[in-house]
Amino acid sequence: MNRATTFDSLNWEEVVGVALAQAEAIERQAKEIAALRAEIVELRAKLDRPPKTPDNSSIPPSQGMKNTTEFVKNRRKKKAHPGAHRPLSPNPTHRRDVLADLCGHCGADVSSSPQKPCEVYDRIELPPIAPEITRVSLHGGVCPCCARRFKAEAPAGLEPGSPFGPNLRAFVFYLRFTQGVAFERLSRLMRDVFGLSISEGALVNILRSARKGFAAESSAIRAKLLAGGVICSDETGMRVNKRSWWLWVFHHGQNAFFLSHPRRSKDAVEQFLGDVRPDAWVSDRYGAQAGWAEKDQQVCLAHLLRDTQYVIDEGDGVFAPALRHFIGLACDAAERRHKWNDATLNLHRRRLKAELDRVLALTPAHPAGVKWKSTIEKLRPNLLVFMSNRDVPSTNNESERSLRPCVTYRKITNGFRSQWGAIQYADIRSAIETARRQSINPLKAIQNILAAPTDAPLLNTG
Fold first, then answer.
1. Over residues 94-107, mean pLDDT
2. Ramachandran class of 180: left when φ > 0, alpha when ψ lies in -120 to 50, beta otherwise
């Protein structure tokens, strides 16, 4: 800065104006520096925090770091496990008893000697795979009485229309929605394996024609869930027409209902419930799944256990370890409560409440422990509901198991091109998951739904 050309030519008021402008700039820069320093402190605090892993968060195990073990040349040999073999089929299609004709040692004739089975085994083979095609010819003519034309009625099950029978359509549904086979691969599979030419458009028409049947089955499952007193819920993401949607699952016992919805908010739960409110609800700590029960809300202890482990990794050595021990006792009681009578169950509930009181009386010093204790104090009424109601599970793991095939399907197919496809997928998953819980073969359940009237539920939802 050239003083002669800058300040010497200015009067007193102009010099004061320049000084004030510089003071304002310095003050503004000081505020920016203070904000940047605070941001640096916050980022450094985040760098000091432990990483999220499947053990201390909801990250799936597939995204966790795998443990590496170095190869040890002189590793101690493990104890051999007992041998295993494939069990014989309980219902063989054919039986063949083979008798010996000659002695394998001396060559003598042993055909007339008494013999008994020495070795029994199964030989499994697939028969030739070929479609069964029935050519139907409806004959007709001219009536000699009224001189009008007549035609024979089509046999039951062989009516004109789609050439594909219910077993073939059920197989398409099974491959598509349980094995995640894409339409192009499914069309090629039908041609290569069965010698049957089915275009991708025909496959889509097969799915579209069954919408009413699966919708009726899904509605029956929903009605059964709403008639019960306990509902568990969870959700996962999905892609519909290049937009983010959510697939919700509501289940309990032998029934599971899936709902495709464009939002993750309470609108989805309200659409499922309508005016019905169950007595108890089981979910994680996501806000959209809270506040729907008339009486009790059970928080998933498995989620709390992982979050507690993360607080321990952050450095809390007072409150979080004691809470982890308490959650372990609660989960152990949940596994054994079916063996206890009501008096024993009440005794263990009182013991768990006393243990929880002892844990909440602790005073953590680490900020993470203080924050986590405040959260647990708010969740205190939602921790031991399962000890008062035997129908309430202690964790929400069954919801995650129900959604796991949906996540696999999402990764294989990358979503849906239409909203009706996403909605139908939820109806189909409802039928398949309910069938699985009732120990019904999913392919058999699909066959029954496709062969039945659209207003008759097939699964045991009543």
1. 89
2. left
